[in-house]
Design goal:
The protein is of the alpha/beta class and 401 residues long. The chain folds into 2 domains: 2-224, Alpha-lytic protease prodomain-like; 231-390, Alpha-Beta Plaits, CATH 3.30.70.1350. It is 62% helix and 14% strand. It has helices spanning 2-9, 19-50, 54-80, 95-123, 132-159, 162-191, 195-224, 230-241, 276-294, 310-326, 362-378; strands at 248-256, 262-271, 296-305, 331-339, 344-352, 382-390. It has a 3-stranded mixed beta sheet with strand order 1-2-3, covered by helices on one side. Helix 2 (19-50) packs antiparallel against helix 5 (132-159) and helix 4 (95-123) runs antiparallel to helix 7. The two termini are 45 Å apart.
Length: 401
């Protein structure tokens, strides 16, 4: 069904690197969500009011909040697809994140209101009239939500949308909450326990609040500048290392300006003895490759590395081994030596996670001392000049140098 809808309403739906296609896929998912959730709300609200069930009414309002969320997401996709302009040279894709945050806040507000109503029903219980019609509506809702979860998950995975993946998770949660309401209706019917309806409504409200808090956290992360996806970091590094003259990758930064709009920068280590023009051409080809095939705007800095001096290679191996034994997340780069009449300076950069700058930098000083001592023990006349810097992407898990 998912493939049929995409084929029917989105031209060239598989070409998600095209922002227009990606936006169309997102719009389709939102419109399908609005239609399904409005129908579910109408059915549940009707039977909830007819038979006096606050838990079914609460579940209905939850579906209405989902429909509202879909509307906000639709607006987010529409605004996010606007092209870059003079005032916003990096585009408008972050509107999708803002839409997700608005949806999350709406869910929290609805959860609070439903919780208050359910508490009142627990304190002053009223009889709930059971109907097989209401049970049938709840069963139908479970089936529809199961399909919606699968649909949003597939489309979200196709276009790499955190908003749709969150919507898929929310639909899956709705299956659980609606199943709980159905169970409560059946138990209340056969046991005449009037407070169970209010208790179940409260549990649904708490579940909505829990989901809302999780969604707020997830949507805030990219806005605040969360760490890049380790899989994407590994992919970028492996692809760069696949080029023949590349010896290493470091100082990677990934700037997230919204789904499908990421700017990447990193340094490449290449042989200092090589043909500069040929390596420059290789870097240009790499940047075009990332943009054409991965939709990434990449800026690359070329660092020359001496490969013909065996002493430099020996020093690099010792320093890297010492660093990785101390902490696998530490990376060494830009190593070079400056010989002198009385001593030799070993100059290199040491990229470390943010925690090394906490607590007055004690961890950083300890690491630097280990590196200096390791070099000094083997070459007493060598002195390390080390620049400690923060790593913005963890390259330790990626294969290669």
């Amino acid at each position: 069904m998912t493939e049929f809808l995409l084929r029917r309403f989105v031209k060239n739906y598989e070409n998600v690197a095209d922002r227009a296609v990606r936006s169309a896929c997102g719009n389709l998912a939102c419109i399908v969500g609005i239609l399904c959730n409005v129908l579910l709300f109408a059915g549940k609200f009707t039977v909830g009011v007819l038979f006096g069930s606050v838990s079914i009414t609460a579940d209905a309002v939850n579906n209405l909040s989902d429909a509202s969320s879909n509307v906000v997401s639709l607006v987010g996709f529409k605004l996010g697809s606007k092209p870059a302009d003079k005032e916003h040279p990096y585009g408008h894709a972050r509107y999708e994140y803002l839409a997700g945050l608005a949806v999350s806040v709406m869910i929290l507000v609805i959860g609070i209101e439903l919780g208050k109503e359910s508490l009142a029903k627990i304190i002053t219980p009223t009889a709930v009239e059971f109907s097989w019609l209401s049970a049938a509506v709840l069963v139908a809702s479970i089936l529809v939500k199961l399909w919606m979860s699968s649909f949003n998950h597939q489309v979200g995975k196709l276009i790499h949308s955190d908003t749709l993946m969150a919507t898929a998770a929310d639909s899956r949660n709705d299956v659980i909450s609606t199943a709980a309401v159905l169970a409560a209706s059946l138990v209340a019917h056969f046991t005449a326990f009037d407070r169970l309806d209010g208790i179940m409504g409260l549990l649904v409200a708490l579940f909505i609040l829990y989901s809302g808090i999780g969604l707020v956290r997830d949507t805030l992360d990219p806005i605040l500048g969360a760490a890049p996806d380790p899989e994407q970091v590994a992919y970028i590094k492996e692809k760069a290392l696949s080029y023949p003259d590349v010896l290493g990758v470091h100082d990677m930064m990934i700037h997230d300006y919204g789904p499908g709009n990421r700017l990447v920068s990193f340094h490449l280590e290449m042989p200092a003895e090589g043909d500069v023009m040929a390596m420059h051409d290789e870097v240009d080809c790499m940047e075009k490759d990332f943009f054409a095939n991965d939709g990434l705007t990449v800026t690359i800095h070329f660092d020359p590395v001496v490969t013909s001096d065996p002493h430099v290679a020996e020093l690099r191996e010792l320093v890297e081994t010492t660093a990785h034994q101390a902490d696998p997340e530490v990376n060494i780069h830009d190593l070079r030596i400056v010989p002198g009449p009385t001593h030799t300076n070993v100059i290199f950069d040491c990229a470390v996670p943010p925690r090394y700058f906490e607590k007055d930098g004690a961890a950083g000083r300890e690491l630097l001392n280990k590196l200096r001592e390791a070099v000094k023990q083997k070459w007493p006349d060598h002195f390390c000049v080390i620049q400690l810097e923060q790593a913005y992407a963890d390259l330790s898990e990626a294969s290669g140098h």
